Amino acid sequence: MRQIIAKGLGAALALGLAMPASAQALFDGCPSGEIMGRFVEFGRSGKMPPDLGRWLSTPDAQEVDTWAPFDNVNYVGICWVSSWLVHTDDGSVLIDTLYGPFTPILLENIANTGTDLADIKYVLMTHGHFDHVAGAAALKPLLPNATFVMTQKGWDEAVASSKASQAGPRAWQMIEPEMIAADGEEIKLGGNSFTVLETPGHTWGTASYAYDVQDGDETHRAVTIGGLGLNAIEGPEQVEAFINSLDRLRALTEDGDAGIDVHLTTHGFSNGLDEDRQAMATRKEGEPNVMVDPDGLLAQIETLREGAVKRLAIEQNK
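-> structure tokens emitted (318 positions)
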């Protein structure tokens, strides 16, 4: 399932999809393969199917239950865009903010984990696209002890994107830049360490984050890859940067010392997240955690790379 979905993501995203928000109850639940199939259809035609567009911005259709893939991690996102809440001994870290009509769902999901908003100490944002950062303005006054974090180029992209949106029907606001993250920096909180990996390509300011996740007595190193496709490309140099970022992530996954063996994705349909949720719900004591899947992560990276190489040829021949 993971490799089939990853191939769909490579076809749909790496060749250059935009993902406008706009939707209704199009699917029964949050089936990764079916959703990917519709994005592949979008990729072939270059035109957003109206029913898919409506589905992307309908809160009732996007709502999913909060769940815990690891002892210290909760999924608090929606069907098509992820948000992860990582708990430590000294507070929690939120990864990505969702946007617009989905802020109430995010807040409800956080509440369902029993987390006090005042205990969230950092908000790590992967890149400046609206679906990952446009919720920051609504969250900022509600998280009194949180520092919002992104790369400098990520902040610049988010601010520019927000300004550009003011002329359209879905305007959104961005907060003023706070903490600027740099490659290799470690954000430490309560015994965990969140390593910043600048992985440009999806956007020039994209960052990924690596951190520890706990499964009983076992500690694993997870990564949230900040960008999974090429839908805002300025030219071949950006595609080359994306390929280089994928090569770096592959090397880190293959490196036993780095220990990365879990991918907590920014878009669940990219690697079968809801199917993993269902498997975890019936997991028996002693059974492996299906989310610990370095081979699946490597397969996803390779599929994305193959799509990016094809896209590079297109960009070079323009």
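The chain has a mean pLDDT of 90.
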